[in-house]
Automatic annotation (TrEMBL):
<feature type="transmembrane region" description="Helical">
    <location>
        <begin position="141"/>
        <end position="162"/>
    </location>
</feature>
<keyword id="KW-0472">Membrane</keyword>
<feature type="transmembrane region" description="Helical">
    <location>
        <begin position="41"/>
        <end position="59"/>
    </location>
</feature>
<keyword id="KW-1133">Transmembrane helix</keyword>
<feature type="transmembrane region" description="Helical">
    <location>
        <begin position="80"/>
        <end position="97"/>
    </location>
</feature>
<feature type="transmembrane region" description="Helical">
    <location>
        <begin position="12"/>
        <end position="35"/>
    </location>
</feature>
<protein>
    <submittedName>
        <fullName>Zinc transporter, ZIP family</fullName>
    </submittedName>
</protein>
<keyword id="KW-0812">Transmembrane</keyword>
<feature type="transmembrane region" description="Helical">
    <location>
        <begin position="202"/>
        <end position="221"/>
    </location>
</feature>
<feature type="transmembrane region" description="Helical">
    <location>
        <begin position="103"/>
        <end position="120"/>
    </location>
</feature>
<feature type="transmembrane region" description="Helical">
    <location>
        <begin position="168"/>
        <end position="190"/>
    </location>
</feature>
Length: 248
């Protein structure tokens, strides 16, 4: 809504996307990888992270090929490419949230809080890009409202598939999401930020601020929920009574 009714300068876009990238890196560094490291061998984590990165590259390649096959209506093509890019990003977010919630509800809530923080500047940038491409306001609002479907559907699908799966499969899914989000943050968000405006020291501070903000949110939720969110599998086992007894 800020981008829709308040306008967005290239400088604001640059800062917003740097902050979003910092938050995503925070999610990967402070939550996803530590959780995977607690329960998976290093080579499994490396394989899953690599698979996530490759998946993002393949998706991005498919979007680019789709763009080249579109007609000559440049404005319409740009609109749909922006829409597809955001829909793919939110689908990946949903897969991460569903996987995290399958591990434990507290862990899923933490990931959701961080992703909401990251998606706010991303949404700001998406709406600003749609405005720049001449998409009418009514259509922009309808497109924005439809984005929730991708995230919720992907989250439900991942949760239903993984809730009864072994812990190793859940943690591998988190490592996969870590690889996918890392590439998205570095190659997509930061590139878009650089295209909007040349970086300044403020851009660097926005990135670091986003990273620090997520760490504070994560620590705050851990305090409120009273659980060790960095060991979500053990937390869930304790809650369900499946943890080994001291003599077990």
């Amino acid at each position: 809504m800020l981008a829709e009714f308040g306008g967005a300068s290239p400088r604001m876009l640059n800062l917003a996307l740097h902050a979003a990238s910092g938050i995503v890196i925070g999610i990967v560094a402070a939550e996803l990888l530590p959780a995977a490291l607690d329960g998976l061998a290093g080579w499994w984590i490396a394989l899953a992270v690599g698979a996530g990165g490759v998946a993002y590259v393949l998706i991005e390649t498919g979007v680019e090929q789709l763009q080249r096959r579109k007609g000559t209506d440049t404005d319409r093509t740009s609109m749909w490419m922006i829409y597809v890019a955001v829909a793919v990003d939110l689908t990946a977010d949903g897969l991460m949230l569903g996987s995290g919630t399958a591990v434990s509800l507290a862990f899923g809530l933490t990931l959701a809080a961080g992703q909401v923080l990251a998606d706010m500047p991303e949404g700001f940038a998406a709406v600003a890009n749609l405005r720049e491409n001449g998409v009418p306001r009514k259509r922009r609002i309808m497109l924005s409202a439809s984005f929730i479907l991708y995230c919720v559907a992907a989250a439900l699908l991942a949760y239903l598939l993984l809730r009864g799966a072994p812990d190793s499969a859940k943690l591998a899914a988190l490592a996969f999401a870590a690889g996918l989000l890392s590439v998205a943050a570095v190659e997509d968000m930061l590139n878009e930020a650089h295209e909007a405006r040349e970086d300044t020291r403020g851009s660097v501070l926005a990135f670091v601020g986003g990273l620090a903000l997520f760490i504070l949110v994560s620590a705050g939720l851990e305090t409120v929920l009273g659980e060790d969110l960095h060991d979500p599998v053990q937390t869930e086992a304790v809650r369900s009574g499946d943890a080994l007894s001291p003599g077990g």
